[in-house]
Amino acid sequence: MSKRVELHEEFINGVATYDLTINSKSGITVRVYEPERKSNDDSKFPIVLHFHGGGFCISQYDWAMYYHVYTKFARMARAVDRRIRDKLAEPDRELARSDFNRVFLIGDSSGGNLVHAVVAPAGEVDLSPVRLAGAVPVHPGFVRSVRSESEKRKEFETPFLTVDMVDKFLAMALPRGSTKDHPITCLMGEAAPPLSGMKFPPYMVAVAENDLIKEMRLGLTIWIMKRLTRHVINMS
């Protein structure tokens, strides 16, 4: 699951991968999953931008679990004849073939928090030529300082994630002196900006049935629902 997957700019099973540096000073980089297309196919593909989870502290974008998910996403978009990429020219050309009018944000766990943090202010500014077409926080890391019943019972703890681990991750990630009621983790806290009146794209929240902090995430999601005009909850 956490094994790192090397880049392959040649198409393997209909998908090629490469990295693009967004900001050379900060080193922010995105890994692109490009589906194959026929040489005469000039259609534009939607963009899915994923923020990976890991409690703001661990996990990497090149881990195998993400690779398997996003190569499948790319193949679902289009699976066509094999084509080899020119390392210098192709990335720019593929960006030109991307449909910036259909940009979707997805994030798992703490990445779901980042999705919300991007979407909330984005509705108040002109992003042209980019248009956010949808947002999908997947079991986002919405918490509060007060323990939920499921956290107290610790019934869904696993060797991979415990309540104590969540506490330690957030203690390291949030600004010094902050609590879990910080706006990045608690959307209904006093310090969080109001959602009423904000212009959100279609917004789907997925909450896992056996999530360690399911009650808190579901409660905050319902709170969001009451303030947005378009929403979906997916209990899996």
Automatic annotation (TrEMBL):
InterPro entries: AB_hydrolase_3, AB_hydrolase_fold, Carboxylest/Gibb_receptor
UniProt-recorded name of the protein: Alpha/beta hydrolase fold-3 domain-containing protein
Lineage, opening ranks: Eukaryota, Viridiplantae, Streptophyta, Embryophyta, Tracheophyta
Coiled coil: none
Domain of life: Eukaryota
Boundaries of every Alpha/beta hydrolase fold-3 domain copy: 95-215
One Pfam family hit: Abhydrolase_3
GO molecular function, one term: hydrolase activity
